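This week, work through this protein record:
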Amino acid sequence: MSVALETRDLTIRFGGHTAVDRVSCSFRPGELVAIVGPNGAGKTTYFNLISGQLRASSGAVLLDGVDITNTSAPERARRGVGRAFQLTNLFPNLTVAENVRLAVQAAAGVHYDMLRPWTERRDLIERADAVLKDVALTAKRGHAAAALPHGDQRKLEVALMMALDPRVYMFDEPTAGMSVDEAPVVLDLIARLKRDTEKIVLLVEHKMDVVRALADRIIVLVNGACVADGAPAEVIASPIVQEAYLGMAPKGAAA
């Protein structure tokens, strides 16, 4: 498939520090790409540049060949770039169902209408209910988002992205802070999303077992620069990755 999302020499500087350094990568539909690297490598900053939370110092972000570098985060979301954060980003005082309902309404372009209340929109209600079922939150639809356990909050955040039906799903350490029992549920959701050959899934993750299980391709950032990009087995075995990310000396090197 042709490239749908691309970064060209994407760079951001904070004073004299270059956090992301001329990163050029392309992403295709039907692909799950894991972005890995040591702490401080620029992974989340690179995500922020793609999704619009940060403005680039130089370089470009393109979606379907259109330069979106100077568009806002909300505009990128409208164009199909969906983002989940390390910390959950929900409406804490609303119920689970209300959170998903708002996302469904936004995706459908439906605004408040005093003459036609939400309860009359069976199509939107059914869509919201289907998303809740997909993430196994139907039984908690009436609970306040703030009252959910951390794992369920992460599932709800995935539900909001699913309700918006983006073309690009971006997950920043989706299992951070989750228990051993909670993590597989979110990872299973991501695995299901990657089966859609029209979607791109980008994943920042430091757990290599998760990366091996899910990724079709791995990009490695070190000191803000892309040092490897390829198939998981090839990238994980490369000396530069073993040294910079896994903390291992390359084979044949002195201890």
Remarks:
- The chain has a mean pLDDT of 85.
